Amino acid sequence: QPRDAYSIAVIGGDGIGPEVVAEGLKVLDAVTGQGGPKFATTDYDLGARRWHATGETLPDSVLEELRGHDAILLGAIGDPSVPSGVLERGVLLPLRFALDHYVNLRPAKLFPGVASPLDVARVAPDGIDFVVVREGTEGPYTGNGGALRVGTPAEIATEVSVNTRFGVERVVRDAFARAAARPRKHLTLVHKHNVLTYAGHLWRRTVEEVGVEFPEVETAYQHVDAATIFLATDPGRFDVIVTDNLFGDIITDIAAAIAGGIGLAASGNINPARTTPSMFEPVHGSAPDIAGQSKADPTAAILSVGMLLAHLGLDAEAERVDAAVAADLAERGTAARSTTAVGDAIADRL
Ligand code: NAI
Ligand code: MG
């Protein structure tokens, strides 16, 4: 139910994160400007700077404060000055796990006027417009593993994929509901159940069983390796894809690439039960190679703001953001524009 006022936690993070988030907030301001709902934002300093200054990643007190907001807008976390894994395992994953973001929603839509590396007229004459529902709290990302004899020739490392009936069922049910609400009503399970038989058959059976509740939704199955072929050769076949945490991470980078590039790919870490704030962020990372140069494309962050608005039930505002982005993309051409110029152009349309 839409309200008059919302509080948003803002985590700019590292590298280009704060740059693109600033443009997302500019667009949020513009779309909610006159007479719309009020958005109060609170900045949280998380990421490389905080870790260098205090050694902290995600303090409990910050996590508790974050729980008090209606939603979270995140830029990116990760910096070459911090050992790989410290911030990813210390900030990003704990947020997704603690806030039970079990749906990682990643739309892949090729907007008119946007170039794809694919010959779209040939491989997807009806366009590219699908959404990946990636499981966000289980799989190989839970930190269920360990290492022995590290650095020796006898080193052992395990990284166990965790799959629970509860966790698979809730994300599969969410994916079916999304498919049922879309015109094509089609759901593809992507896994690897010919080899990963324990987890794979749990996913397969769960899709079959939950599917009984959604007779209007047609289902399909692809092994993940074959799915990468079809994402490149026949992406128009996909409508909703449901998959585990790792497969979803990988195929959504391919999805971003075919749908116009990582600068356009938005995502939501969603708790559909709404017991915690959901978190919206561009799929890309902190892009240290272009940080501080105003070269980052803020479109993914802006589209993530659109997803945030939709999650809060502000559908009209969300549609206006999408339309403004679509209009900008249609006229964008190839001339380079700064991060702020893109944000200004989209905000001006609102
Ligand atoms: P990345 O997404 O940061 O960059 C990959 C390539 O895409 C780079 O060449 C970069 O310049 C380009 N790129 C990314 N976003 C762009 C944008 N908005 N506009 C134009 N070009 C853009 O991925 P990478 O290099 O693997 O990771 C860099 C850091 O970000 C690492 O520390 C990684 O762990 C972290 N990361 C964080 C994520 C998050 O916070 N959710 C997601 C992915 C990576
Ligand atoms: Mg990724």
Give the secondary structure arrangement, pairings included.
Blueprint: E1 5-13, H1 17-31, E2 38-43, H2 48-54, H3 60-67, E3 71-76, H4 86-98, E4 103-109, H5 120-123, E5 129-135, E6 145-148, E7 156-159, H6 165-180, E8 186-191, H7 197-211, E9 218-223, H8 224-233, E10 240-243, H9 245-258, E11 266-270, E12 278-282, H10 299-311, H11 315-331, H12 339-348
Parallel strand pairs: 1-2, 1-3, 3-12, 5-10, 8-9, 8-10
Antiparallel strand pairs: 4-5, 4-11, 6-7, 11-12
The structure holds 1,4-dihydronicotinamide adenine dinucleotide and magnesium ion.
Domain Isopropylmalate dehydrogenase-like: 7-346
Subunit structure: Homodimer.
Cofactor: Mn(2+); Mg(2+)
Short description:
Strand 8 (186-191), helix 7 and strand 9 (218-223) form a beta-alpha-beta unit. This protein has helices at 17-31, 48-54, 60-67, 86-98, 120-123, 165-180, 197-211, 224-233, 245-258, 299-311, 315-331, 339-348; strands spanning 5-13, 38-43, 71-76, 103-109, 129-135, 145-148, 156-159, 186-191, 218-223, 240-243, 266-270, 278-282.
Overall number of structural domains: 2
Largest sheet properties: 10 strands, mixed
CATH architecture of the largest domain: 3-Layer(aba) Sandwich
Fraction of residues in helix: 40-55%
Number of strands: 12
Work out the helix count: 12
Examine the coordinates and then state which fold CATH places here, giving the name of the CATH topology of the largest domain. Isopropylmalate Dehydrogenase
Q: What characteristic shape results from the CA principal axes?
A: globular
Give the rounded overall mean pLDDT. Answer: 96
